[in-house]
Design brief:
Immunoglobulin-like; four-stranded mixed sheet; 1 helix; 25 strands; 52% strand
């Protein structure tokens, strides 16, 4: 009696496979698919996509089939999932310090860069937290950079930006180079500007009045000059006489304690003839 073969082969597939992506194209995945049959023994298995293919990100259903000598066909599927769980590799710009008044914008202080296995166009952004420094114009910016790929994986790095005030104020004497005796009493108020916010404190810390003989000898003229000082202002009550030199020392201190000093001066000259 001839026994009829109506039983399809049995396909043996591995369990569903999950692989980490090796690049933007996905991952190369190999698997073993076999089939056996009661009459035909081992039967070849055809899968689509086949083992050893590059599988894209996401889940792909692989359909496999096997047909025995009697034409009986069996089908089965295996799911292959390629995922991207690897965060980008981020590199922070170097820590730096800038003077107050300078912009802490990344165009000045540097931007982070990042690379990723799968994504060539990463979302890179930053957020700042600010801590006060030792004086009102100084502070520390802690800038956290974050790079995120298309799969939502992210990595972070931290850059520190110190904003310092090491620049001394600039003093303006606000006085002409010469005056005439008849202009007294006359006053001059010194001012100062600073690269940071806040007005520097300005004061006159000393003055002098002198002249020179034709031979170049210095003569003290403080007794003939009448000078008054009021904070940042010098008042020439009496200039003394022609060819007298009146000088005063101005000191400016900014909010961070940076100090600068300069000497201002006027020379007493004869009035111009009408």
């Amino acid at each position: 009696m001839i026994q009829e073969d109506i039983t399809p082969p049995v396909i043996n597939l591995p369990k569903d496979i999950t692989m980490e992506a090796a690049g933007p194209e996905g991952a190369l995945v190999s698997f073993e698919a076999t089939a056996s049959d009661d009459f035909s023994g081992q039967v070849p298995v055809t899968c689509n996509p086949e083992s050893g293919s590059i599988f894209p990100l996401g889940t792909t259903e692989v359909k496999c089939s096997a047909t025995d000598a009697a034409g009986n066909t069996a089908q089965d599927i295996i799911k292959i999932t390629v995922s991207d769980t690897t965060p980008p590799l981020i590199t922070c710009p170097l820590d730096t310090s800038i003077e107050c008044g300078q912009s802490p914008d990344p165009a000045i202080t540097g931007s982070a860069s990042a690379t990723d296995v799968c994504d060539s166009s990463l979302d890179i952004n930053s957020s700042d937290s600010i801590a006060p420094g030792t004086c009102s114009e100084e502070k520390t910016i802690t800038r956290t950079w974050t790079a995120t790929d298309d799969s939502g994986n992210s990595s972070r790095c931290v850059q520190t930006i110190e904003i310092v005030d090491s620049t001394t104020p600039e003093i303006q004497c606000n006085a002409p180079s010469t005056i005439t005796p008849r202009e007294a009493p006359i006053s001059f108020t010194a001012t100062a500007s600073d690269n940071c916010a806040g007005e520097p404190f300005v004061e006159i810390i000393g003055y002098d009045c002198f002249a020179f003989t034709k031979k170049g000898k210095r003569i003290d003229k403080k007794e003939s000059c009448i000078i008054k000082v009021n904070g940042d202002t010098i008042i020439v009550v009496d200039s003394g006489g022609v060819d007298d030199n009146i000088t005063w020392t101005v000191r400016a201190t900014d909010n961070c304690g940076n100090i600068t000093e300069t000497t201002c001066s006027v020379m007493v000259v004869k009035p111009s003839k009408p």
